[in-house]
Amino acid sequence: MTVVLRLGHGEALEIVDSAGALFAATLLLDGPAPRARLETALAAPRPPALRITLAQGIPKGAKMDFVVEKATELGVAAIVPFASERTVGEGSRAGKLERWRRLAKAAAQQCGRADVPEIMAPVEVATLARSLAGYDVALIPWELAAAVPLRDRLPAILGRARSALVAIGPEGGLSHAEARELEEAGGHLVSLGSRVFRTETAGLVACSALLYESGDV
């Protein structure tokens, strides 16, 4: 706050505590360490009207860290890492899940969310397909889906949906068999346009489109 944001003594802050409560506060720099005086409790921002779960094919390296952080900022309610035929990343390694949950909590506090998205344990595609029945609608962005603009498809797909799942394949994308399995389970295969997005970008694009269509962006 003092080095990067260059805030001074007496400046106003908003602070989110570990329980998700939001407070107006005043920054105090009159001692050896920065302090904050809590003033009044504030109403936390409402979560999006459309509850979105992002199912992310586990990517390589630290890309999942990026996905967790940015999806949290967008307002995604839950994130489900999943392994598929073309998965290269290691999502089951000890400590990965705990790290993603810590990142989600930190990102929620940074962006002023009162809740922290649930980061679920990694699953297989078959398990993910069976879970589609628990959502009002499921979108499966796939580079081989019919090239119909998402803008034209979303109104009819969403309708009055209150919950949605978005499933994104890993770096190599979903295989034909996996895409068909998810479609047969009730998912809608959709196109995100003529450009092929990286796996860590595609989910954020799709979730942003859903939030826009539902009135939250």
Characterise the protein shown here:
The chain is built from 6 helices and 10 strands. By secondary structure, the protein is an alpha/beta fold. It folds into 2 domains: 12-42, no CATH class; 51-213, Alpha/beta knot. Strands 4, 5, 6, 7, 8, 9 and 10 form a 7-stranded parallel beta sheet that branches. Helix 2 links the parallel strand 5 and strand 6 (118-119). The chain starts with 11 loop residues before the first strand and ends with a helix. The mean pLDDT is 92.
Question: Descriptors for this entry?
Answer:
31% helix; 7-stranded parallel sheet; 3-stranded antiparallel sheet; alpha/beta; Alpha/beta knot; 217 residues
What is the topological layout?
Blueprint: E1 12-16, E2 22-28, E3 35-42, E4 51-57, H1 63-74, E5 78-83, H2 96-111, E6 118-119, E7 123-124, H3 125-131, E8 137-141, H4 150-158, E9 163-168, H5 176-184, E10 188-190, H6 199-213
Parallel strand pairs: 4-5, 4-9, 5-6, 5-7, 8-9, 8-10
Antiparallel strand pairs: 1-2, 2-3
